[in-house]
Amino acid sequence: MKNIILFLALSTTIIFTSCTGDTGPPGPAGGLVYANVFETTVSVYDYDAEFNQLYSGFYAFPFTVYESDVVLAYRYSGQTSLGNGETADIWTQLPQSVFYNDGTGDFFQYNFNHTFVDVQFTIEGNFPLTNIAPGDSRNQIFRIAVVPAEFAKTNPSMEDILEVMKTTDAEINIIENL
To answer: Which residue among 61, 67, 111, 123 is least enclosed by CB atoms within 10 Å?
Structure first.
């Protein structure tokens, strides 16, 4: 019985370690793609009375950004203790709403707009923003992350469809309208 188990174990090992197939084609050159990140401080906002909106100037990206890249923005909210004597920064993703807990229903929202050239920060609210506390609108620190991306191909051509059908041996059937 021991000999049979030993024979099966050796046979299985030889079969699985000696089988090799054709080497596949080389893959595309790859590597890690990292997002670009930078921080900026909005010292003061300008007020647009027509739209009741505070808006910053435009901050140019310090690196190349493409039309298809994804732009994310975060607002510095403070620091927290890690419990070991160290602290960590707290970043809140925009848009970020701030609600007053005074029964008025007033709120405002930090937001941002961007092109592939620059980014602008705004504060929008449901009350006259000239009354916003200076601590909420002055010296606000923002972190902007630009994630590389490519536009998806949304409308395949008929040639693309036929190419896929060829590889799967599919056929086009005529669909009749009733």
So the answer is: 67
